[in-house]
Write a structure and sequence with these properties.
The complex is a heterodimer of chains A (71) and B (464). Chain A is mostly helical and 71 residues long. Chain A has one domain. Chain A has 3 helices and no strands. The radius of gyration of chain A is 18 Å and the shape is flat. Chain B has 2 domains: 405 residues, Amidase signature (AS) enzymes; 46 residues, no CATH class. Chain B is built from 13 helices and 11 strands. In chain B, a hairpin with a 6-residue loop joins strand 10 and strand 11. Chain B is globular and about 60 Å long. Classes of the chains: A mainly alpha (71), B alpha/beta (464). Chains A and B meet through helix 1, helix 2 and helix 3 of A and helix 9, helix 10 and helix 11 of B.
């Protein structure tokens, strides 16, 4: 059994508006309404990401300085 | 001779025998596009002057006995996120409607050097993600098997144009299935090569860590011809792998036998929730492969939902970074679908992105372990037949798991080839073959053997 964040309640429209503003976005109302309708499916997806990977589990992409130098 | 459905291999033989010429083929395909693309919208821009000039050059060289390689004199087209010097590259978006690149993408340089003939730029979902969309400067492409249906995406024009007999090959891009999906629902072959096998330099980014460029053609054999030209290391693409390019055509030898190969069948990905005609078509394909000598056994991997969650979380975070400036200054210029797929990236937290990256390594390792037991993995190329062309369809990016995304997460080479047709709609069904990183020869060998034993890839839509 893995742990994730799917137990959290979905964000409310006001919370979505606040998060969007904090991200520096100032959307016209029509576009904001569309986004408020779209976000819950994405939020549910992100909350299903497991949060209990081992301490040493590395991200899939690591910094490779040689590639930067070569490029 | 009508060249519309000749393969690259067949065209090459006919050029060698002087029975067809590149100019003749190019002019014929230009006429075919003019006659039929009005209802398919597969091209954003046809480039007939360039095509004829390149075909004339190829013809002179071939007549002089100077064959540059397998694509010499072969017409092809590019998804319109691949940059072409002096030719607009729009991303099928209002945001880049007037963008004319100064330089060619690296793979275009390779195609030019090969003597291939550029026919034009192809429709895509907006920036290879937002679609199908009806609110962009160009209409969405339609499926040649039935224009009431869509050709999948995001390499929508590439799938439609190759299936329609407009070009024998095209370049698409695949982040979560954008080559394999259109190939699957258009009844053609489409390869997502290993991540790092084909340079992405000069191609509009979608998700830096999962973008792949690759070919769509009408046979696995033609995929080998095409890949031979565009594969290779590019020091200016940070994701490019410095690994020698093998002779892909050599992988097609072996007289179509697969003796000794062990194939892992990921049946649980399509056993439930797929089109009802898909599991029987897959079972029949497995029997064909067994008949060719392969050992096929089931293998269990994580669920499609897990892979889709992981891939999409990474994707939308990277996408947002790409489009942040335009979303803040001109959000209304995005199509609705792309905008609502990119904006969520603004709300992905750093820890969400990093956890998804860590999960990607875990999921990729699970595939690597399976590929120690098996030479290749088999599954379906798409869970369903093509979607109806309905502007009111719900956005399925996150609501339905994808059967192509797992192999994007692994960065594995994965090839979709047709394996049947649905009874009710008469639309293509597809088989997907994947193998370990850089094992494109294994994937091509299996798919080619399957196509020597079946004729699904030899069926073509009637455009009249």
């Amino acid at each position: 059994m893995r742990t994730d964040l799917s137990y959290l309640p979905p964000s409310t429209p006001d919370e979505i508006r606040a998060m969007t503003r904090r991200a520096g976005l100032d959307l016209p109302e029509e576009l904001m309404q569309q986004f408020i309708a779209a976000w819950p499916a994405f939020e549910a997806m992100v909350r299903r990401i497991p949060r209990d990977l081992g301490r040493a589990a590395e991200p899939a992409h690591s910094y490779r300085p040689l590639r930067i130098v070569r490029g | 001779m009508d060249p519309a459905f000749l393969t690259i291999a067949e065209l090459g033989r006919l050029y060698d025998q002087r029975e067809l010429s590149p100019v003749e083929v190019t002019r014929s395909l230009i006429d075919r596009i003019a006659a039929h693309d009005g209802k398919l919208h597969s091209f954003i821009r046809v480039t007939p002057e360039i095509a004829v000039a390149e075909a004339q050059t190829a013809e002179r060289e071939l007549m002089a006995g100077r064959r540059r390689g397998p694509l010499h004199g072969i017409p092809y087209a590019l998804k319109d996120i691949v940059e072409t010097a002096g030719i607009p590259t729009t991303g099928h978006s209002k945001l880049c409607e007037d963008y004319v690149p100064a330089a060619d993408a690296h793979l275009v340089t390779l195609l030019k050097a090969s003597g291939a003939v550029l026919m034009g730029k192809l429709a895509t979902w907006e920036f290879a993600l937002g679609g199908p969309s009806w609110d962009l400067p160009w209409p969405p492409a339609r499926n040649p098997w039935n224009p009431d249906y869509l050709p999948g995406g995001s390499s929508s024009g590439a799938g439609a144009a190759v299936a329609a007999g407009f070009v024998p090959g095209a370049v698409g891009t695949d982040t979560g299935g954008s080559i394999r999906g259109p190939a699957a629902v258009c009844g053609i072959a489409g390869l997502k090569p290993t991540y790092g096998r084909v340079s992405r330099r000069g191609v509009f980014p979608n998700t830096f860590t999962m973008d792949h460029c690759g070919p769509l053609t009408r046979s696995a054999e033609d995929i080998a011809f095409f890949l031979q030209v565009i594969a290779g290391f590019d020091a200016e693409d940070p994701g490019s792998e410095d690994v020698p390019v093998p002779d892909y055509r050599a992988a097609l030898s072996g007289r179509g036998r697969l003796d000794g190969l062990r194939l892992g069948l990921v049946e649980h990905w399509y056993a439930h929730g797929a089109h009802p005609d898909l599991p029987p078509a897959m079972a029949a394909a497995v029997e064909v492969l067994r008949g060719l000598g392969a050992v096929v056994e089931p293998v269990q991997l994580s669920s499609l939902r897990d892979y889709t969650d992981c891939k999409t979380t990474i994707s939308i975070a990277e996408l947002y970074a790409i489009h942040e400036k335009d979303l803040k200054t001109r959000p209304q210029d995005f199509g609705r679908i792309l905008r609502n797929r990119v904006l969520p990236g603004a709300l992905i937290r750093a820890e969400d992105y990093v956890q998804a990256l860590r999960w990607r390594a875990v999921l990729a390792r699970e595939q690597a372990v399976a590929l120690k037991r098996f030479d290749a993995l088999l599954t379906a190329g798409a869970l369903n037949v093509a979607d109806r062309a309905d502007p009111n369809q719900p956005d399925r990016l996150v609501s339905s798991p994808s059967i192509t995304m797992p192999l994007s997460v692994g960065g594995l080479p994965a090839l979709a080839v047709p394996c049947g047709f649905s009874g009710a709609e008469g639309l293509p069904l597809s088989l997907q073959v994947a193998a370990a990183p850089m094992a494109e020869p294994t994937v091509l060998r299996i798919a080619h053997a399957y196509q020597l034993a079946t004729d699904w890839h030899r069926r073509h839509p009637d455009l009249h």
